[in-house]
Amino acid sequence: MIVGLGTYLPKEVLTNDDIAEMMDTSDEWISSRTGVRSRHRASAEETTASMGAEAGKKAIEDAGLEPDDIDMIIMGTMFQDFTYPGPGMVIQQAIGITRTIPVIDIRVQCPAVIYGLSMADVYIRSGQAKHILIVMAEKEFEHFKVDRQIGVIFGDGGSAAVIGPAVGDRGVYVTDIQGDGAGVSDLVMTSDNMPGLARGEAVWPEVLRKCKAYWEERGFIPGHTKYPFWIGQEVFKNAVKRLIKSARAVINEIGWTFTDVQHFFFHQANGRINAKLAELLKLPISKVPSNIDRIGNTGAGSVLILMDEAKKAGNLKPGDICMLSAFGAGYLWGTALIKF
Ligand code: UT7
Predict the structure, then answer these.
(1) Does residue 198 form part of some domain?
(2) Closest ligand 1 atom to the C-alpha of 149?
(3) Which ligand 1 atom is nearest residue 235's CA?
(4) Which residues have CB under 8 Å from 267's CB, separation 6+?
(5) Per the structure, how many domains does the chain have?
(6) Which atom of ligand 1 is nearest to the CA of 34?
């Protein structure tokens, strides 16, 4: 079960009007198409690992544990600070864990929180770990701001949860994690891990041809080596279609109905995606919390930030049934059903 939650958000807040000064967009377009009104931006000193570590410390404290009570770290991000090692190792040090423990960095983009929860559940059930810290953090704004379609949605931040053994009937009930590589070319970023690739000096894999054509048309940006690309509407449609199927699969597996669920903590990718999910699954919107207006899309970080907020506001209580779900690049996606 989730025994502790923590969040870290950088101080600086950028409104849509601030964004409109950086790229060709408007508050009206961003808020009506995405629901985002502001987002946080990490400073030069803040990193994926530093934000993740701060969130992790808070989650351990919230669980009433000490750093050395953690038996394993599972870290998810799209933007690790170094090519290697992953941020999980930096986080282990920054949190002050003095024991040697397994540290697993996972590269599964926005649904990393669901993958992390699913993995933690398996390790805990098998008895190989008692308390697992899952940490999700993204320093992504600076990479996405080169393209207005993507740059307006994302924000920076980190979140974490300590997962412990089930207590009574409180715990992780069902997780569904899925991937379909058919979506690779709809949502992709070339990076400086692949020297020369961005400017077409190296051979582009066939699957990246749409990304290459997109950036050739716009002209590559001098000094920039990360090129995001997505076909927004395809991603939108796939997110809705696949998350609905996944939500129904977990509900059917346990033999419940959606009315048995108190909270639907959906990834904050675009407010319209979640409105569509609520409409098609016939969920009262009051059960689908949202903070995308203030936080934007924080990638892997969003679901636990949302849960932490709900807990602090007194809306998420021990024993509440929650559905968590997220969709992202790959395509990869997942859903979890838990009793908090
Ligand atoms: O977190 C990972 C998963 N990601 C997602 O789930 C994202 C899913 N997709 C989306 O959220 C939406 O597709 C977007 C927000 C990315 C785009 O919204 P849309 O309603 O699908 O817009 P569009 O791409 O169809 O573009 C509509 C128009 C276009 O102009 P024309 O061709 O109609 O003249 C775009 O060029 O809006 C234009 N446009 C913009 N205008 C002002 C695109 N981005 C912007 C912008 N500001 N930032």
Answers:
(1) yes
(2) 44
(3) 8
(4) 110, 111, 297, 302, 303, 325, 326, 327, 328
(5) 2
(6) 15
CA dist 131 and 166 (Å) reads 11
| 131 is a catalytic site residue | no
Distance 278 CA to ligand 1 centre (A): 21
The last residue of a domain, from among 226, 251, 274: 226
Distance 230 CA to ligand 1 centre (A): 9
On whether both 95 and 196 belong to a single domain, the answer is: no
Q: Residue for token digits 């024991």?
A: 99
Residue 43: give the domain boundaries: 2-167
110 part of the active site: yes
Which protein residue's CA is at the shortest distance from atom 24 of ligand 1? 232
- Let me know whether 213 and 159 are in one domain: no
Are 204 and 101 found together in one domain? no
Q: What are 261-282's pLDDT values in tens digits?
A: 999 999 999 999 999 999 999 9
Do 11 and 128 lie in one domain? The reply is yes
Answer yes or no: 252 catalytic: no
**Helices of type H across 127-186:** 141-144, 148-151
State in Å: Cα 326 to ligand 1 middle.
Answer: 19
Model confidence at 101: pLDDT above 60: yes
DSSP 221-264: PTT---EEEE-HHHHHHHHHHHHHHHHHHHHHHHT--GGG-SEE
Q: Examine residue 83 and state whether it is found in any structural domain, yes or no.
A: yes
Does any domain span residue 222? yes
Mean pLDDT of the chain, nearest integer: 94
145 falls within a domain:
yes
Q: Is the minimum distance from the CB of 273 to ligand 1 under 6 angstroms?
A: yes
pLDDT band for position 211 (cuts 50, 70, 90)? confident
Q: Cis (ω within 30 of 0) for the bond into 111?
A: no
The verdict on 47 and 124 lying in the same domain is yes
From 270, 274, 297, 322, active-site residue: 297
Using CA atoms, how far apart are residues 39 and 60, in angstroms rounded to an integer? 26
Mean pLDDT computed over 295-302: 98
pTM summary value: 0.96
